[in-house]
Amino acid sequence: xxxxxxxxxxxxxxxxxxxxxxxxxxxxxxxxxxxxxxxxxxxxxxxxxxxxxxxxxxxxxxxxxxxxxxxxxxxxxxxxxxxxxxxxxxxxxxxxxxxxxxxxxxxxxxxxxxxxxxxxxxxxxxxxxxxxxxxxxxxx
Length: 140
Hints:
Strand content: 35-45%
Helix content: 10-25%
Number of domains: 1
Oligomer: single chain
Strand order of the largest sheet: 6-5-8-3-2-1-9
Structural class: mainly beta
Order of helices and strands: HEEHEEEEEEHE
């Protein structure tokens, strides 16, 4: 029994992180993990304890429509930018850790970019900015 438990524990590999890419907004870059399937989008940055200064997560959806995010089970203070199908930022908002109220996109969005809170302000990125390097919409 002990041998089986040890082999199961050692035999399982850790889940691989979502694919990563670099996005460019003006002269600023951010390295993002891509969440493009339902399970990745649902888990997002929950349970994370840290996020690098110029890192984030890009949520990719199969269609452009109003979106809502919340911070349940997320301890990091984050900022979110909702992007339309062309990669233009349509809304930027700050989100509070563990808050279960929703933060709406206000306008239809195909992407959502989460970064450390204040990142957009520090880089003087505003609504209307174009984000280069977004992957095509998810088929999931």
